[in-house]
Design a protein that fits this description.
By secondary structure, the protein is α/β, with parallel strands linked by helices. The protein has a single domain, classed as Spore Coat Polysaccharide Biosynthesis Protein SpsA, Chain A, CATH 3.90.550. It is 36% helix and 15% strand. It is built from eight helices and seven strands, in the order E-H-H-E-H-E-H-E-E-H-E-H-H-E-H. A seven-stranded mixed beta sheet has the order 3-2-1-4-6-5-7, with helices on both faces. The two termini are 30 Å apart.
């Protein structure tokens, strides 16, 4: 068995990608690389291509040429949790950060997360706060309602479970991620689908005894991708709300049934 003798990175940045050509074309990876290149710790960036059907892969391949610490990982289409999990298994860093390709939360915001690991935390996540700049009024109101209802049931000390800017110790991710219900279902999602798998993930971290910290980060909706269903903002918002409500209810029911007792 061959052993990887390269120095272990401190931070592994995992970026899932499904049909992100428009975001790639506006230079999001250049932003990521410029920031990381100026760090005084070892790092790696793993871009996980979830079998994109646009030209995302070719854009990524072109970008990573001659960049030894940035890699492309191709996986069969399986949805965002599958892409993040693939990145975790590939990662070598002590800390793993999951960040969205659109960089609505700029990678530099990780500076607000990393110091908390020195204080003993195992999971440090970004929060978009209450402003949600770039959200429509309908989404802002809906977000308040969803957070309020969810906190009555689960994760009372966490305000924003859905921010796409989360980090944790890699060992914690390796233990908890496979316990997600997502990986136990027979039918995997096709195309882009919003889910509140984040709720279950954070609940499992909490259940396993890991110390969680939520930190407010700057967030501005910059997404230009074709990943999301573009059939109408209101209709899409309603579908997402229903989906997330179902997920919270499912996690709560699983807890009552004792399905997480072995975590």
């Amino acid at each position: 068995m061959m052993h990887d003798e390269r120095p272990r990175p401190y931070l592994s940045v995992i970026i899932p990608c499904y049909n992100e050509a428009k975001n790639l074309e506006r230079g999001v990876l250049d932003e990521v690389y410029r920031y990381l290149s100026d760090r005084d710790y070892r790092w790696e960036a793993i871009i996980v291509n979830d079998e994109s059907t646009d030209n995302s892969r070719s854009l990524i391949k072109s970008f990573i040429r001659h960049k030894s610490n940035v890699s492309l990982l191709d996986i069969p289409h399986g949805g965002k949790p599958e892409a993040v999990w693939a990145g975790i298994r590939e990662a070598r860093g002590k800390i793993v950060l999951f960040t969205d390709m659109d960089q609505s939360t700029s990678l530099q915001e990780v500076e607000k997360l990393l110091p908390w690991y020195e204080r003993g935390y195992d999971v440090v996540i970004g929060s978009r706060g209450t402003g949600r700049e770039g959200f429509s009024i309908v989404r802002q109101i809906g977000s308040v309602v969803f957070r309020s209802l969810r906190r009555l049931i689960l994760l009372r000390n966490i305000s924003d479970t859905q921010c796409g800017f989360k980090s944790c110790r890699r060992e914690a991710a390796l233990e908890v991620f496979p316990q997600l219900q997502f990986f136990k279902q027979k039918d995997r999602p096709k195309g882009w689908k919003v889910s509140a798998y984040d709720v279950e993930l954070l609940h499992l971290f909490d259940k396993a005894g890991y110390a969680l910290k939520e930190v407010e980060v700057e967030w501005l909706n910059r997404d230009q991708s074709d990943t999301k269903d573009q059939t109408g903002a209101l209709a899409r918002y309603l579908r997402e709300s229903i989906e997330m409500t179902k997920e919270v209810s499912r996690v709560s029911l699983n807890e009552l049934k004792g399905l997480y007792d072995d975590v």
